[in-house]
Amino acid sequence: MVNKYNVAGPRYTSYPTVPYWNMDTFSLIKWKASLKRSFIESNDKEGVSLYIHLPFCESLCTFCGCNKRITKRHEVETPYIDALLKEWDLYCDLFGTRPKIKELHLGGGTPTFFSPENLKRLITRLLQRSELAEDYEFGFEGHPNNTTEAHLRTLYALGFRRVCFGVQDYNETVQKAIHRIQPFENVKRATELARAIGYTSVGHDIIFGLPFQTLEYVEKTILKTKALMPDRLAFYSYAHVPWIKGIGQRGFKDSDLPSPKLKREQYELGKKLLSQAGYYDIGMDHFALATDTLYKSMKAHKLHRNFMGYTASKTQAMIGLGVSAISDSWYGFSQNVKGIEEYYHLLKENMLPVYRGHILSEEDLIVRKHILNLMCDFETSWATDNLYFKELPDVLVKLKEMETDGLLEILEGGIKVLPKGHPFVRNICMAFDLLLQRKQPDMQLFSMTV
Ligand SMILES: C[S@@+](CC[C@H](N)C(=O)[O-])C[C@H]1O[C@@H](n2cnc3c(N)ncnc32)[C@H](O)[C@@H]1O
Ligand code: SF4
Q1: What are phi and psi of 342, to 5 degrees?
Q2: 110: Cβ below 6 Å to ligand 2?
Q3: Going by C-beta distance under 8 Å and a sequence separation of 6 or more, which residues neighbour residue 360?
Q4: Which atom of ligand 2 is least distant from the CA of 143?
Q5: CA-CA distances (angstroms) from residue 94 to 49, 196, 250?
Q6: Per the confidence metrics, is the pTM higher than 0.90?
Q7: At 342, is the pLDDT very low, low, confident or very high (cuts 50, 70, 90)?
Q8: What's 410's DSSP letter?
Q9: In 3D, which of 284, 450, 244, 330 has the Cα closest to residue 15?
Q10: CA of 245 to the centre of ligand 1 (A)
Q11: For site-directed labelling of 99, which of 55, 188, 383, 392 has its Cα 20 to 30 A away?
């Protein structure tokens, strides 16, 4: 099954996936109109989400697929925060009325590269032009090696209750290969401090499929994780995409990576150990305790997936600020420029620093809904909500084979992914991905599905 379904495929944090965005039908004017429409439809009702990309890290981890800039010069903090605030002002001017913030997430790079004072200035100023939605959720990604008590306290006082720490693997050989020396003590300190201060959701990111990783190392990492019992866990499959990220990921050889078979065994072992430890499987690569909002949201069929991965709540509009950040108006996507200098330059000219995007067609909107349903609920239906589309019979032919393999069940007017099919949900989504079927990418853009 692993050999059969291990193909290059999207992670479906959006549909259409970024390589299929159609730049011919996209323009900044259309993007602004689609966001304004979404804002008018949804701000009063549910508010908007904000993702803020803070790209700096002091040291390069050679496995990292994120958009980051490595520097030890902390003078970069102030101009970057000024630029983020300028970008936020441009959006607020576009909306005309105050946005209501439902969710705010600081991602990176390393948000805790910034000093607590600078983060405070950023959040305080953002909130001056906005209101807070009821049950708002603020969260951030922290590096266990540089998250200080002052970071945790300052952000807590500003309303943050969720923090997620990058762990990856505790084994020293793996840590050396990925250039990330991070003792268990550092993660323990940061996790316990966050709990003591009052954070209600502390998360850890761990990865399988890293160079030199063995089944034993995965087991030991999960046992150590269990000792700290984070409320939620991302258990990512290592995405090896050196052709996009260049030399950053080439700190080890391809032959140092586990085989697809071993990688699948690592996933199966991890999943078993996490389930024995009391974690529930959320969507594709997340796990949570029953007390965490991610689990509660899954139970209530309210889980959502966007560029940040799985989230407990959905807003129709999500605004991404900062270099490379992606925004989503539901009717369209846009992405900011990736270079910091260009980002500053465009903002100085009073222009939104967007360089590409996509406006969704009627067909895209239908397929998007099916893929979201599958990724979040492991089922979808075309019996209601006008979710039938004319290519569906062809999709069903593809799904038939997966049904024979025991991955899913085809029902009257819908499908249900069976537990055996959960690890292959990306492959199932690919059957619905009409754009991928019409045109295979010219080169391998996606990581392997297993
Ligand atoms: C922005 S980092 C987390 C915050 C902080 N920079 C740190 O490293 O602790 C986001 C997470 O993405 C995951 N990640 C990064 N590159 C990845 C890759 N190539 N494959 C799978 N997961 C990856 C890691 O688990 C990492 O913790
Ligand atoms: S894993 Fe985190 S700290 Fe390491 S390079 Fe990536 S973003 Fe920076």
Answers
A1: -65, -35
A2: yes
A3: 16, 330, 331, 332, 333, 368
A4: 3
A5: 16, 41, 43
A6: yes
A7: very high
A8: E
A9: 330
A10: 14
A11: 55
